[in-house]
Design brief:
Pfam families: Asparaginase, Asparaginase_C. The chain has about 325 residues and is of the alpha/beta class. The protein is built from nine helices and 18 strands. The protein has an eight-stranded mixed beta sheet, with helices on both faces. Helix 2 (about 60-70) packs across helix 3 and helix 5 (about 215-225) packs parallel to helix 6 (about 240-250). The relative contact order is 0.12.
């Protein structure tokens, strides 16, 4: 029998009704008590990493999760993280960079309704996760939710209430579970070499979502305080005329590599294509920047934090790291 470690963080799946609404209250053993027959498939140990609403998730908790997996890596065949849905995609992306080259599955799941509710989706998600982890070809950081296995860097929460909360953006689902059978669409390659753990991250990043008429003055303040700037523009991407000169001056005012600028799109599907229009094409050679292309916003944030944590010495190194393919995060290169 395979031996798995379940790490709990709180979230809706572990919540109960409080005076002011749902609040995380159940521990790991409480969650597993709802699926007592799981012991017929595998052996399970538990660890409570934290017990929070996932709105409060941050880099400190990411490090705790990665550290717990590193400390127990040799003792288990896989790891299941129970997580709140609101920031689950961010955590899945972050762990994709913190834990690389793993032969073992690191699966994140949760629920849209607490496990104690009669209409909960938690039981299905937990059972599906264990079944999926039992498969020999399941490896790496993935999300299992609503019968879908999604690469950790491709998951996005698209529904606030529906049970099909997550979708795989700009990339196929890794697998689905239908009638208790795993149907695999994407093969995750076996890693070459040993698992790599790296929890160095700098999350000092600002996301600026452009709106018609955005003021250039905000850029000056952002550059003073943040090391990474993600500019979420319109359509295929580009910088409005009123922002161009200020953005150029701000980005070029700092030594090469000190500030990382990423151009992304507000459109969820099909990615950015900055050079299609003049408002994007004109940036070439005017300032150093990266383009998100088909990456999820959650993955862009986590990857920039990961790159900043490495303290790269040149813009070339930043580009090489950003455009490297980690857990299927970027393909449109």
């Amino acid at each position: 029998m395979k031996n798995f470690l379940v790490l709990t963080t709180g979230g809706t799946i572990a919540s109960m009704e409080g005076e002011n609404g749902l609040i995380p209250a159940m521990g790991a053993e409480d969650l597993l008590s709802y699926i007592p027959d799981i012991g017929k498939l595998c052996t399970v140990d538990t660890m409570e990493v934290c017990n929070i609403d996932s709105t409060n998730m941050d880099i400190g908790y990411w490090r705790m999760l990665a550290g717990a997996i590193r400390e127990n890596y040799e003792d288990y065949d896989g790891f299941l993280i129970c997580h709140g849905t609101d920031t689950l995609a961010y955590t899945a992306s972050a762990l994709s960079y913190m834990i690389q080259n793993t032969e073992k599955p690191v699966i994140l799941t949760g629920a849209q309704k607490p496990i104690s509710f009669e209409s909960t989706d938690a039981l299905m998600n937990l059972r599906d996760s264990f079944q999926y982890m039992m498969e020999e070809d399941t490896r790496g950081v993935q999300v299992m939710f609503g019968g879908r296995a999604i690469a950790g860097t491709r998951a996005k929460k698209i529904n606030t209430l529906s049970y099909q909360a997550f979708s795989s953006i700009n990339f196929p689902e890794i697998a689905v579970i239908r009638n208790e059978r795993v149907i695999r669409y994407v093969c995750t390659p076996k890693p070459e070499g040993e698992v790599l753990f790296d929890t160095r991250m700098n999350p000092n990043i600002f996301l600026l979502k452009l709106t018609p008429g955005s003021s250039p003055e905000i850029l000056k303040e952002i550059y003073k305080q943040y090391d990474g700037i993600i500019l979420e523009g319109f359509g295929v991407g580009g910088v409005p005329d009123r922002l161009f000169e200020t953005l150029k001056a701000c980005q070029n005012a700092y030594p090469e590599g000190q500030k990382i600028l990423v151009l992304a799109t507000q459109v969820m599907s099909e990615g950015s294509h900055v050079s299609v229009y003049e408002v994007g094409k004109r940036m070439e050679g005017e300032m150093p920047y990266l383009e998100a292309k088909d990456m999820n916003l959650e993955a862009v944030f986590a990857k920039v934090a990961w790159i900043l944590g490495k303290k790269p010495s040149s813009w070339q190194e930043i580009e090489e790291l950003f455009y490297s393919n980690v857990n299927f995060d970027i393909l449109g290169i």
